[in-house]
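Regression check, magnesium ion case 286:
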Amino acid sequence: ESAKTVQPRTAVYDSSMARDNSAQLLLLSELTTAIDQHHLELYYQLQVDLTAMEAVGVEALLRWNHPVRGLIEPDSFLPMAERTGLIRPLLDFVLTQTTTQHLEWRREGIDLALSINVSTRNLLDTTLVERVRRVLDAGMDPRMLTIEITETSSMTNPPLAIETLAELRRLGVSLAIDDYGTGYSSLAYLQRLPVQQLKIDKTFVLDMMTAPAHRVIVRSTIDLARTLGLTITAEGVEDLDTLMELKALCCNYAQGYYVGRPVPAEEIPASVSKLNAELKECTDTR
Ligand code: C2E
Ligand code: MG
Ligand code: MG
Ligand code: MG
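Current build output:
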């Protein structure tokens, strides 16, 4: 058991990799060294409180600055990292990097809650809670940290997931279900998890102003989540009309290209000021 949970920094070849072509294998060996070579970077995407109409948080999103291929998005390398166990050092990188950044912004007077993504393998890793506790010890207020998991990862091993989530909750961090609506779980199942937030997947939000079925799904999800005492974030908000509609539907938070694209950390302070000024203007004039 314990031998199995030790995940070496070097990737191990396993049978599931038979699917991978040689290009993927090359990418994998490069990813193994990318952390040490500082080729991985976190981008941050702003989140808006729709009641206060101001920026209140960021979600950290991993990027790989590949020396030859340029910027690589997470969907192109995270599945491979997940299959090989590299996802563990990646999470440690994310935890250290983002909590340090959060504290740095605080010192600059910028108070933004922080959301990070945790994969299925990360969630089922019995060392997760201890590793989160360790980074919080550096001085971050646990209430300012949200850990996002997907419906699918919560359903892979429900008893272990529930136990781990409860322990994370005891640390004082907040828990969110990401991409809600894309899995097969019901709110009846999800409300048994010790989570506080629901993020509606962008596929429903992107076209909610033109697709009546999606608008209905978004509206009823917001209503149900509120009834269950969960706060709700809409992902994929790409225009002002959608943002104002979500506000009218009493959605708590919005995230998306209209609010801000994911950007490197150094762009965040200026983005916050610019966004808050724009939001103030649009609430004054509407
Ligand atoms: P996610 O957690 O659901 O993150 C939101 C994704 O939607 C991001 O894609 C973001 O760039 C994109 N997005 C945000 N606003 C909009 C919008 O208005 N329109 C559209 N079309 N897209 C929008 P990204 O950065 O490519 O990340 C994809 C996924 O990779 C994430 O989905 C998350 O599941 C995973 N991921 C990213 N960073 C990490 C990480 O550090 N650890 C883990 N385990 N997973 C991560
Ligand atoms: Mg997320
Ligand atoms: Mg999502
Ligand atoms: Mg996603």
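Comparison notes: The longest strand covers residues 54-66. Residues 179 surround magnesium ion (ligand 4) (CB under 6 Å). No diff flagged against the previous build.
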